[in-house]
Amino acid sequence: MRDLLPDLERWRKDGKRIALGTVIQTWGSSPRRAGAKMAVTSNGQFCGSVSGGCVENAVIEAALDCLKTDQARLLHFGVADEAAWEVGLACGGSIDVFVKPLEEDFFQILRKVWTDESTSAHITVIRGAADIVGHEMLVSEQGHTTRTFNDRWGGKVLELAQEVLSSRKSRRAELDESTEIFIEFIAPPLTLIAVGGVHIAVALMSLAKTLDFRTVVIDPRGAWGNEERFPHVDQLIQAWPEEAFQQVEITRSTAIAMLTHDPKLDDPALKIALIGPAFYVGASGSNVTNAKRRQRLLEAGLTESQLSRLHAPIGLEIGAEKPEEIALAIISEVVRTYRKPKHLEAPREAGLISNSEQT
Is 149 a member of any domain? Predict the structure, then answer.
């Protein structure tokens, strides 16, 4: 949605009516996930995408019809294997798309959520009685609501919203046999903070940028944390961790990687990171190094529960040797931690050193 905002703002200033199409579920192979959007104006201009081919044409037609009738529509596209390549579904599959006219008052509320980069659940009625289809509301991470449903469903909707906020995954859900909602998870862009401007960090920041992470490097040592080594990071902070973390916000969309092997840098950073909301905290070093680190942090007042959040040795075990391979192992673990529920993660094998660079 963020990438659509400039076009939406320009069209609104020009007085154009707009409809939004949102992917609410896919089956089989699809290049766009639930929550992907495209916007269509009354004169046929559009931005964004919901698949990879002619599904867009059908959505544009449906959006134009929605703007004429002022009624939302739930669309289903089934794709046979032989036609799959034509619409971007390489292995066949199906897509459900919900199309509705853009509601100006609620758009202003939704726009603020996207631009403020706050975490919320966006609920839309996608099937039901004509007078409620298209009804929208927001539930913030703190439980604050914008608009409400009636008493019959209010409690259930809030419970479902909290489940989505916890799982970080958009989903559709039935309220009863005839009423269905789509709950979209909205979160700030993912941010990766590297503590230590070492060679692995150079490769790691490059991979993170490719995956659309915001990138931050913290290192007070001018020889390591400088613009020549990191010309493309979003934020370079040449300060010790206690000061540096005052200059960057840590949220549930933040991952933090300690890469220096130096207790003077890693330990203060870990004391801050492990008590905060970051979804991932990792530290390089062997099992011996990690055991010593844990003991120091316990003596410094951190609890076993807080230390259990630490991924150390850092990165997935892929037999990495080169700095670029180790960076790949780290970013892979970051993505897995964000996308895959913790209870489904395989436990680390006892005594395993994640990758050969970790000493």
Answer: yes
Total domains present in the chain: 2
CA 74 vs CA 177, 181, 329: distances in Å:
16, 11, 41
pTM (two decimals): 0.71
Q: Is 137 helix (H, G, I), strand (E, B) or coil?
A: strand
Helix (H, G, I), strand (E, B) or coil at 204: helix
Per-residue pLDDT tens for 218-256? 999 988 989 999 999 999 999 999 999 999 989 888 999
Q: Domain residues for 233?
A: 191-344
Kindly give the pairing relationship between strand 214-218 and strand 235-237: parallel
* Whether the Cβ atoms of residue 180 and residue 126 lie closer than 8 Å to each other: yes
Residue 88 shares a structural domain with residue 26: yes
What is the side-by-side strand order in the sheet with 310-311? 235-237, 214-218, 191-195, 254-258, 280-283, 310-311
Distance CA 325, CA 167 (A): 29
- Give Rg (Cα) of the chain: 23
Distance of CA 80 to the CA centre of its chain: 31
Answer yes or no: do 205 and 140 share one domain. Answer: no
Query: What is the rounded CA–CA span in Å between residue 306 and residue 313?
Result: 16
List pLDDT tens digits, range 63-113.
999 999 999 999 988 765 454 455 555 555 688 999 999 998 899 888 888
User: What is each CA distance from 56 to 39, 84, 329, in whole angstroms?
Assistant: 10, 14, 36
